[in-house]
Amino acid sequence: MQHSVENLNSKWLNSRVSRLLLGGLLAAVCWAQAPEPNGAGLEEGTIPDRWITGGPVCNETSPKWQVHAYNADVYIIRESGCTNYEKPFLYLFFGKDKALLQDTGAGETDVYAIVSKTIASWCQRNGRESIPLIVTHSHAHGDHVSGDKQFQGKPNVTFIPLKQEDTMKAFNMTNWPEGKGSIDLGDRVLDVLAIPGHQPLSLAFYDRKTGILLTGDTVYPGRLYVTEFALYAKSIQRLVDFTRDKPVAHILGCHIEQSSTPFKDYPVGTKYQPEEHGLALSRAHLVELNDALRSMGANLKRYAARDWTLWPREPRAPK
Questions:
Q1: Residue ranges with strand state E in 72-132
Q2: Mind listing the pLDDT tens digit for each residue in 45-59?
Q3: Closest Cα partner for 209 from 254, 163, 250?
Q4: Which end of the chain has the least Cβ crowding within 10 Å, N or C?
Q5: What residues make up the domain containing 288?
Q6: Number of domains in the chain
Q7: How far is CA 132 from CA 10, 50, 96, 157, 159, in A?
C-alpha cells in the first residue's frame, strides 16, 4: 500500500512538473518577441541618423528627395522641406514578383520619376527588365496622395483607389476595421491592418521579413492628430495586440515633427529641422501610447510624452 501511495505521488508530481514546463513553454511562445538576441531571423537594414530636411536655404540646386536603401529590397524615400514643409516619408518594398509603394508625397513633385528611377536601379541589379508596381496609401490626407495622378493609368502599375471597399479587396480583408489582411509580393508578405482614428482609411503594414511596422500618421515622432478618439484608441490597442508575439525592429511613420530635445516639437510649417528626432520608434513607444489612451478613459486631451504628443482635432476632409 505504501508503494502504491509513493507511486501515485510520483506520478502526480511528474504530471504537475510536466504541466508547469508546458505552461512555461507556451508562455515563452506567447509573450517573447524573440527567443534569443540573434537578430530574430529578420533581414537587417539601416536608417540614417540625419535626413536632408531642406535648407537652411532653399534654391534650385536643393535636393528634392532623399532615397535611402534600408537594405537591398526596402527603400525609404523622403521629400525635402524645400518642396513641401510636410516632408513626408514614402516606403518602397520589393518582392520577387511585385513591388509596393506606400504614398505619393505632398504638393507638386516629380515623385513618379524618382520612384521609377529607384525601381529601374533595383531591376538592373537583379537582372530584371521590369517589375509590377502596386501603389497604396497610409491614409487619404493630401500630403500623402498628391502624386497619385502621376501613377494612375501607367503601364505595369496597379493603383489601389482610396475607398474602403477597394482597400479591403486589394488586401483580402473580410471585416473593417477589426479584421486584418495581407498581400504577398513574392516571398515577401505584408500584413495589413485598418487603424482609423487619425483618418478613416488609415492603414498599418507589417513586413514579416524585416520586422518593420509602418504606421502612417497614426504613430510617429511628432503630433499625433486624433479626429475620432474611440476609433483611434481601438486602433492602437489592435496594433499592441497584433505585435505582441511578433518581432518589431522599427515602427516607422510618415513624418518627423519632434526635435531631438525631449518633449519639444517643431512648429507647424517648419521646413528646416537640423536637430530632429530619429525616424524610428519602438514597440515600447506603442505600449506607452496605448497606456496613455487607456488612462484617459473617454476624455481625450492634449498630452505630451517624451517622443510624441497626442493632439485632438476636428476631422478634416481629404484634399
A1: 74-79, 89-94, 99-102
A2: 999 999 988 889 999
A3: 250
A4: N
A5: 65-312
A6: 1
A7: 64, 31, 10, 6, 11
